[in-house]
């Protein structure tokens, strides 16, 4: 049979362990910032790195043959409606739909543009 003193020590140890676990897992108060609420513009930015995954692949192309000139715009530049965004130098070798280009491309096998057709502006 178990002695009363052993039972008392066991009960005290279990109670102490329960109190210790309760104290260890109890929520702690957090420091917070407080300020007066005022009417104004709210601006916040979040900068994070991420990864994107393609669900479907698309091929973006134009029905024009040529070389794209250097684009002078940078990310975030403002543009107006109808402004020229890029210029395309026609390359006559694969340009068979235009009669002037078709004639000049048959006579020349060089990679340089030989066509006198004006370069289109991409808007």
What's the layout of helices and strands?
Blueprint: H1 4-25, E1 66-68, E2 86-90, H2 99-107, E3 121-122
Antiparallel strand pairs: 1-2, 2-3
Describe the structure.
By secondary structure, the protein is of the alpha+beta class. Helix content is 25%, strand content 8%. It is built from two helices and three strands. It has helices at residues 4-25, 99-107; strands spanning 66-68, 86-90, 121-122. It has a three-stranded antiparallel beta sheet with strand order 1-2-3, with no helix packed on it. The radius of gyration is 38 Å and the shape is elongated. Residues 104-114 have low confidence and may be disordered.
Which class of secondary structure composition applies to the elements?
Answer: alpha+beta
What gross morphology would you assign? elongated
Q: Widest sheet: strand order?
A: 1-2-3
Helix content: 25-40%
Helix run count: 2
Distance between the termini: 97 Å
Strand content: 5-15%
Report the major sheet. Answer: 3 strands, antiparallel
Q: How large, in whole angstroms, is the Cα Rg?
A: 38 Å
Mean pLDDT: 76
Order of helices and strands: HEEHE
Number of strand elements? 3
Low-confidence stretches: 104-114
């Amino acid at each position: 049979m178990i002695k009363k003193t052993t039972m008392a020590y066991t009960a005290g140890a279990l109670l102490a362990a329960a109190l210790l676990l309760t104290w260890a897992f109890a929520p702690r108060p957090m420091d917070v910032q407080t300020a007066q609420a005022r009417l104004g513009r709210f601006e916040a930015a979040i900068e994070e790195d991420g990864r994107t995954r393609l669900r479907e692949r698309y091929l973006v192309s134009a029905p024009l043959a040529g070389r794209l000139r250097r684009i002078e715009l940078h990310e975030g530049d403002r543009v107006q409606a109808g402004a020229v965004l890029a210029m395309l130098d026609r390359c006559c070798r694969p340009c068979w739909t235009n009669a002037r280009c078709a004639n000049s491309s048959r006579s020349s096998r060089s990679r340089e543009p030989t066509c006198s057709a004006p370069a289109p502006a991409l808007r």
